[in-house]
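Forum: Protein Structure Q&A
Topic: Joint prediction for protein chains with partners

I've read a bunch of threads here and the consensus seems to be that you should model interacting components together rather than docking separate models afterwards. I'd like to see that in practice. Below is the full input, 315 residues plus whatever partners are listed. Could one of the regulars post the assembled result?
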Amino acid sequence: MFRAAVRLSVSGARSLTRPQLGLTAPLAQRCYAHGGKLESDEEFDARWVTYFNKADIDAWELRKGMNTLIGYDLVPEPKILEAALRACRRLNDLASAIRILEAVKDKSGPHKKIYPYLIQELRPTLDELGISTPEELGMD
Amino acid sequence: MLFSFRMLATRALSLVGKRAISTSICLRGGHGVAKVDDYALPAYFDRRENPLPDVQFVTELSAVQKSLKEKEKGSWATLSNEEKIALYRISFKQSFAEMNEGTKEWKSVIAGMFFFIGMTGLVVLWQRKFVYGPVPPTFESEWKEKEVQRMLDMRINPVEGFSAKWDYENKEWKK
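Posted by a regular:
Agreed with the consensus. Here's the joint model:
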């Protein structure tokens, strides 16, 4: 049901060696127990982007959303992370923004190419908001 | 660390120190609010699967930290790297890199293993010297020679085994 950027446990390394083509794993969709329609990647992404884009999101919702998202078997798409980082900005929480970047890098596990790709995609947002990556701060 | 004052059931105020949460018990009609113990409050913990814990790591901010928090409300581009790291350290105890690094415990484990294997070796040596009686006479070389000769005379396993390897003509082992 949840597939977004990378289905880490199913997709082989080959689908991750060319990040510029997008990190969608080939049709790795989980079964649904309730018998409803399977959610597509785009719907999943859109749902999460909408969640973080809520204008008056509060700190609890940000934490809950982020912890839940990290609990899934995937690395979130850059657009979801962008929305999360902007939510941090609205909440005046730089520490959480840096933490999110760390968590996403940790989430990629052995697939080393994911994180640089994400940073590359997020670079405009990072520069705009003034967020430093953990590497720039020497925290790795 | 946390001082929670014992509260009698009939008393009013309980102040939970460091967390600066005051639970006041109003006794109206015999009802009371339970005292909040430290362990019942949301705790801070560094876990990979829970990147944003429920509470900040540092709960009481110094004046410097408070002013830094104020500065955080403005543009983040104006913050220096040290300030950003300071803000991070207010909210979190260990970075992901720090929480993921291994301990050096394996060295203690291997050292312990070797030590106890060594101790066991010493015990075994001691046992051999002081506990076990003498080895039976059947192990002496003279006895063994006679034993082998007897086996050859009996033609033990003459086809493919023991006696097959003895050259009866030349009275020596076959090359």
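The first strand of chain B starts at residue 13 and ends at 16.
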